[in-house]
Each structure stands twice: as structure tokens, then as C-alpha cells.
Amino acid sequence: MQEKLIKVHPSDNVAVALIDLNAGEEVTFEGNTIKVISNVKAKHKIALSNFDTNDRIIMYGVLVGKSNQPIALGEVLTTENVTHQSEKVYKKTGDIGWSVPEVDKWKDRTFMGYHREDGQVGTENVWLFFPLVFCENRNIEKLKEVFEKELLQQQVSQQQLLLRALVNGEEGEESQLKNATSNRVFDNIEVKFITHAGGCGGIRQDSESLARLLAGYVNNPNVAGATVLSLGCQNLQIQIFKDALEAINPNNKKPVQIFEQQQMGTVDDMLSTIIKESFAGIKEANNIKRQPAPLSKLKVGLECGGSDGFSGISANPTLGYTSDMLVALGGTAILAEFPELCGVEQELVNRCVEEESANKFLELMQAFEKSVVDAGSGFDMNPSPGNIKDGLITDAMKSAGAAKKGGTSPIVDVLDYGEYIHKAGLNLLCTPGNDVESTTALVGSGANLVLFTTGLGTPTGNPIAPIVKVSSNTELATKMPDIIDVDTGAVIRGEKSIAEMADEMLEYIVAVASGEVKTKAQLLNQNDFIPWKRGVSL
After folding, report:
1. Contact in structure between 510 and 295 (CB atoms under 8 Å)
2. Which of 203, 251, 378, 470 could be bridged to 453 by S-S, CB 3.0 to 4.6 A?
3. Which residues, other chains included, contact 20 with Cβ-Cβ below 8 Å and sequence gap of 6+?
4. Pairwise CA distance, residues 1 & 147, whole Å
């Protein structure tokens, strides 16, 4: 029989409701009988003791809030009776040991990846088109239309067939609604396109930051080559982009074709030249074949979005155990979303291998939080209405669960936004908590695959890296099967352990990395790209 409550950490003074509880119901928990004072929906928290005003609320073993009024044993915690609160951290106070997971069965496993000259290995083989400035977005869109129509030879989509039937007065004739299919000209190369709203009009630092991000996309092992469009007069000059790419990889051997409109005459002439030269590059890149690679070549980004009250006890810990396994195998994991690490800084600081990394993490966190406060907001505003509705009522509570994605391994490096991964192991990357801005940054820092947990559902994808969507609960996986790849709801029901679920996760990662399975985001052609305009973005 499924348990009704779970306490995440022995020192917690609140528990999570695993199922809906009704007022007046009596629940036996840890040898005690608790009378439920008010209705408690699954995923929400219930008091395990009587709280006075200003009492500390502990969950995941850390401070996640304070009571702003008396809360009775058995009463539900809400935004009305709890206020965000987290511990202040000033320095590293010690080291935290690591229990390395058993990975013997995985040591000789490989995935089929695309080997690059610099030693990186891609899970995809992509030729990427992007502009240095938003003025070139229309030309990118035109190239996208031309290349996708000819290289994919797409048939009419299911949605277009539906509209056609409605226009013709044939509503309900499902026989006409076929699934969209495509016939590919090239079997071994994907052609992807990025547009954005940057590159000019802002401060120079914005363009330099965008240059580093775009250079990271070119250097990502999933990219075989790139076509870059420039207007000519914009802030993000071609040389700035070249310098950014040189800084990341001085020995870049990938073909990067750059075209400047103000030097090329008419749009037709420019597009004709781009199409001819890009097609030649794409044709050559199609000759690159998948070959075996050790799992140590995987660089996995860790992301969450549309989180719920179960995320921190099923999906996120599963990712944490999976990332620990990858690190033990010599691979790389990247934990981002700094506003969602608020309250667990001390543990993360103490896990930093080097003092310099610990200090950098604290400096980045403090600067980020100050910028938010200066704008009249705060990290306490991070939880979305959806988060709150499903049990994440304070930022510290949300953060404590979100940090579980990073497992328990030592932190080998701390990176600012736009910096590229150079050390195997667990890395911290400064990004906002915004799903797409953070995922965009993870891939720009070198992630060749991203694990993305969700409790409420989100269709987020990426142009060059597979996004594996992981649900915290089976209800979501059943309701939205077109976006969920892996369901960890069995953990909530007590049917599988975190270790068992992580083992299944790693099997799925290997299949995706080898091209044997397409993620739901890939099948939906979900290609999200939003750079972080450095400033306030939560």
C-alpha cells in the first residue's frame, strides 16, 4: 500500500503529502498519529509539529522558510502562513565526502557519437545557421524555408490537413488527417536555424555576451559546421565573434562560413551565394559517421522547469544519482539556474574542490541577487504560480529540491554565463532559472545532451542538443505523453528506488546519445533559443 506522507531528510519538521489528505483524517507516520487539520493536496507540505510565529521550517535538511503565524501539527503549509527564508553563507567551512556509486556494469559501455578533431564527441551532427544581429533574422528564416523544404521534402502537416478539411467543409473526416512525414536528402546531418533579438541596440557587453554564447554553440560537439550572417554595422562585429570562438578553442577546425550583407549587394545575390557554399559544407559534413565513444565523453546539462512538489523527491534525485554515475565514469554534468540554488549554497560551497571555485560561486550568487534586489524584486519571487499551486511555496523550498539534480559529487569548476566547460566532473554554471534561457546557456557551455525534469509539463527543446524530458509523476506522463520521455512516478509510488530509476535513465541516455531514440522535443521539432540579456531575469 502506498505511503501517505514522506519526510525527505531526518531533520525535517515538515512532510510531503504523497496523496490528497482530507481534514479530520488520521495518518500514522513514524509511529505517531497525526490528525489532518486542513485539506492537503498531494505534493503540498504538512506540519509535523506545532509552529509558533517565526519558527524555522526545515526541509531537505535546510532552512526553507519561517512561519509568519502559528501553524498547528497536521496543518498544510501555504504562502499565507510561511515566508521565504534561507541561510546566509559567507565562505567555505569544510569539505564534504562523496560516496561514489557502483558503476562497474557501465565501465565498458559506449555510445555511438560523432568524433570531432578537438577530442569532443557529439550526440548529434548539425549544420547550424544563425545571425550575429537581429537584422538578419528574415534572411535566416528565408534560408530555413528553402533548406527545410528541399532537404527534408516535408509533406503537409497534420494541422494543415485539418485546417484544409475545415475550409472545405469536411470537418471530422479523420481519414484525411495523416501524420506529417519527411524524406531526407542527407541521412547523417541535421540542418538547424537560430534567430534572436540581440547583436545591436543594447550595451556593448550584451553583444560580447551573445558572441560568447554563439561561439559556444559552434564549438559544441554536436555541431559539424556553421553558416553565420552579419549585416555589417552592428555592435556584434564579425571580429568580436571570431575572438570569442578563438578564446574558447584556439584550434577550431570546423568550417565556419561568414557572410556580411553590406558587402554583398542584393539579397538575392547574397542568398544564392550562401545556399551554394552552405550546401557544399553540409554535403561534406554528411560524410561524418557515428563511431563508438566511452561514456566519459558525455556532457549532460541538468535542468528543471514547470516543477512541482514531487520534483525534489523523484525526478531531481534521479538526475542527481545519474549525474553521480556519469561523473564516476569520467563524464561531465552541469548544474545551472543560480536563483534555484538559493538556500543550499553552504553545501555547494563545501563541495567545491578548490577554494577559488567556492569564492567564485558565492560572488556570482551575491552579484546576481543584488541585481535582482536593485530592480525592486528578489529571489523570493522566483517560484511561479504553477510552482506554488503544486506545493513549492518558497524559493528556498524550490531550490532545495532543484539542487538535487546535481547529486553529491565534488564540484570541479564554477562558470559564469557564456564560459565553456573544460573540466570533467560536476560544474556549476551561472544562469537564470528561466527554462529556455538556462537550457540555451547549458548547450552554449558544451552540453551535448540535457536532462530536463518537470512536474507540470513543458515542451522546451533546443536546436542542437537532445532534451530528455523527465516527469516527476505518472499523472503528467499519462496526460502529456507527447512531451515526456522518462517517467519517475514509480519512485513516488514506492515501486522503484532512486538508484533503479537512475539506471534506467542512463540506459535511455545512451540510446538517445547513439541516435537510436529521438526525444519527444526532437520529434516535435522544438528548437528554443533565448539568450540571457544580462540583468534581471528569473
Report:
1. yes
2. 470
3. 39, 40, 41, 42
4. 55
Which strand ranges, in their side-by-side order, compose the sheet holding 5-6? 5-6, 14-17, 45-47
Question: Do residues 64 and 397 make contact, with C-beta atoms less than 8 angstroms apart?
Answer: yes
Q: 306 — alpha (psi -120 to 50), left (phi > 0) or beta? A: left
pLDDT tens per residue across span 385-430: 888 888 888 888 988 999 999 999 999 999 999 999 999 999 999 9
Distance CA 116, CA 403 (A): 32
Asked whether residue 514 carries a pLDDT value surpassing 90, the answer given is yes
Q: Where are the beta strands (DSSP E) in 154-268?
A: 190-193, 223-230, 256-260
Name the residue with cell 554583398: 264
Alpha-carbon distance 15 to 76, whole Å? 10
The whole-number pLDDT of residue 176 equals 47
Looking only at the bridges linking them, the beta strands covering 110-115 and 291-294 are: antiparallel
- Model confidence at 537, pLDDT cuts 50, 70, 90, reads very low
- Give the amino acid at 72: A
The 332-335 sheet, strands edge to edge: 411-415, 425-429, 332-335, 299-304, 449-454, 467-471, 486-487
Q: Which amino acid is at 333?
A: A
Count helices and strands in the chain by DSSP H and E runs: 15, 22
Q: How far apart are CA 215 and CA 211, in angstroms?
A: 6
Q: Which three cell numbers stand for residue 171?
A: 470537418
Sign of the Cα torsion 14, 15, 21, 24 reads negative
Rounded (5°) CA angle 520-522-523? 65
Sheet order of strands, 62-67 included: 56-59, 62-67, 82-83
The residues near 13 (Cβ < 8 Å, ≥ 6 apart) are 47, 48, 49, 51, 56, 57, 58
| pTM for this prediction | 0.93
pLDDT of amino acid 182: 56
- Distance from C-alpha of 443 to C-alpha of 466, rounded to nearest angstrom: 10
First vs last C-alpha separation in the chain:
40
State the Cα angle at 456 between 159 and 45, rounded to 5°: 165
Residue-wise pLDDT tens digits, 131-183: 999 999 999 999 999 999 888 766 567 777 777 777 787 755 454 444 445 56
Euclidean distance between CA atoms 533 and 33, whole angstroms = 52
Radius of gyration of the chain (CA): 24
Work out the number of other CB atoms within 10 angstroms of the CB of residue 145. 11
Distance (Å, whole) CA 21 – CA 5: 10
Report how far residue 249's alpha carbon sits from residue 265's, in angstroms, rounded to the nearest whole number.
32
| Angstrom distance (rounded) from CA 350 to CA 328 | 19
- 354-363's contacts with Cβ under 8 Å and 24+ in sequence apart are 355/92, 357/411, 357/412, 357/413, 357/414, 357/428, 358/91, 358/92, 358/414, 359/91, 359/92, 360/414, 360/416, 361/411, 361/414, 361/428, 362/89, 362/90, 362/91
pLDDT confidence of residue 163: 74
